[in-house]
């Protein structure tokens, strides 16, 4: 049985529900009854739960097991079966082999240690949920509850062993030269610009904002036309939750992952936004005015809010015209590039609390977040190289 995770729009208020369907298009009751308990959480969180549980059922299908019946009967899983489940949970959904010969192949076969850990936690919580549901159908004197708790403990101990991929792929931001070349390609006046003239300014503005403000792609796609505001120090982008879901026609509307915030922007960025709104966007006429209230629209004849696919398409077009420079170009690289530029431009020490707080504020991270280290791989290597050169120069005559 093949499982799929889909989004379903609730017309009354615009929210999207995460639905798991089987190969017949029917929603399995046990799985969906569990997922819907988290409807107050973000869509991405609910989808991660759904994908983890479908991974469990795919494993059970391969071994011809009925997970629900095993939990209902109190037979649970044997030690060997839990060991098998552990190995299966390490694999990506599209893994071609479960025994890669090199580390490079392993990167495309196994999930990272963090992803593996989250998967296991979600599966264990789901099995515990089923256990409590079936325990409620038994007498208090029934040993089921005790046996179930023992099974959950044993299952957790086996699954949570560090079996994820430790050699995760490192993501590097673009070099300064690549950034300049990218902006050159996207210049609306550049005759070599690969995009149609009617969307050149929009595409230039999108990449400019992703590169030089640190905004997430979901936050960018959630911006309203009035997002640019004046502050005592200049201009800023007001990033808020997607509060008009009832008007958003996108199947998977973008969400702001963290708290709302104001991102300072330069006068040039503010000018680009204003020019885009008054020019390219306004020229689309009444259809654009009637579209859902989001800053960026797609290029369809009847404008609708832009989706993440448009960002991917922009990257794909640039890769096609300049594959040597932008072989790995993808929307997530812009955020890495922003953080690298922040490290290399700031006069603050990258490990100082002052710099970390600045980075956290601009990127929308929690006050104690250490994600900055993940996003500054390239700039940290540059600083390390400069430090070693300086150290070596002291001993060269």
TrEMBL record:
Single annotated GO MF: DNA binding
Keyword set includes Transcription regulation: no
SUPFAM superfamilies attached to this UniProt entry: DNA breaking-rejoining enzymes
InterPro entries per UniProt: DNA_brk_join_enz, Integrase-like_cat_sf, Integrase_catalytic
Domain of life according to the entry: Bacteria
GO terms for biological process, alphabetical: DNA integration; DNA recombination
Protein's recorded name: Site-specific integrase
């Amino acid at each position: 049985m093949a499982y799929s995770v889909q989004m379903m729009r609730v017309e009354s208020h615009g929210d999207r529900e995460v639905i798991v369907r089987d190969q017949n298009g029917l929603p399995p009751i046990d799985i969906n009854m569990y997922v819907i308990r988290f409807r107050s959480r973000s869509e991405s969180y609910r989808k991660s739960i759904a994908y983890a549980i479908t991974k469990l059922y795919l494993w059970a299908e391969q071994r011809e097991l009925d997970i629900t019946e095993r939990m209902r009967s109190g037979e649970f899983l044997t030690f060997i079966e839990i060991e098998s489940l552990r190995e299966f949970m390490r694999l990506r959904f599209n893994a071609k082999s479960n025994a890669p010969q090199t580390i490079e192949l392993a990167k495309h076969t196994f999930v990272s240690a963090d992803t593996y850990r989250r998967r296991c936690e979600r599966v264990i919580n789901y099995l515990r949920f089923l256990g409590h549901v079936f325990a409620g159908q038994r007498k208090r004197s029934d040993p089921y509850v005790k046996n179930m708790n023992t099974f959950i403990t044993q299952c957790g101990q086996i699954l949570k062993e560090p079996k994820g991929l430790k050699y995760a792929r490192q993501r590097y931001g673009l070099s300064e030269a690549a950034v300049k070349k990218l902006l050159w390609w996207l210049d609306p006046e550049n005759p070599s610009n690969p995009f149609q003239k009617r969307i050149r300014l929009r595409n230039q503005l999108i990449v400019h904002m992703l590169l030089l403000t640190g905004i997430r792609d979901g936050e960018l796609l959630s911006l309203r036309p009035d997002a640019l505001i004046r502050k005592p120090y200049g201009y800023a982008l007001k990033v808020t939750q997607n509060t008009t879901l009832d008007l958003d026609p996108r199947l998977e509307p973008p969400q702001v992952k963290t708290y709302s915030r104001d991102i300072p922007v330069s006068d040039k960025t503010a000018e680009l936004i204003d020019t885009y709104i008054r020019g390219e966007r306004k020229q689309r006429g009444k259809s654009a005015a009637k579209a859902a209230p989001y800053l960026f629209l797609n290029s369809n004849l009847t404008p609708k809010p832009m989706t993440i696919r448009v960002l991917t398409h922009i990257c794909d077009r640039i890769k096609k015209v300049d594959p040597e420079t932008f072989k790995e170009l993808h929307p997530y690289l812009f955020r890495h590039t922003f953080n690298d530029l922040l490290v290399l431009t700031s006069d603050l020490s990258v490990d100082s609390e002052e710099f970390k707080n600045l980075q956290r504020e601009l990127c929308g991270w929690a006050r104690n977040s250490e994600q900055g280290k993940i996003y500054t791989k390239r700039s940290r290597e540059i600083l390390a190289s400069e430090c070693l050169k300086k150290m070596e120069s002291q001993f060269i005559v």
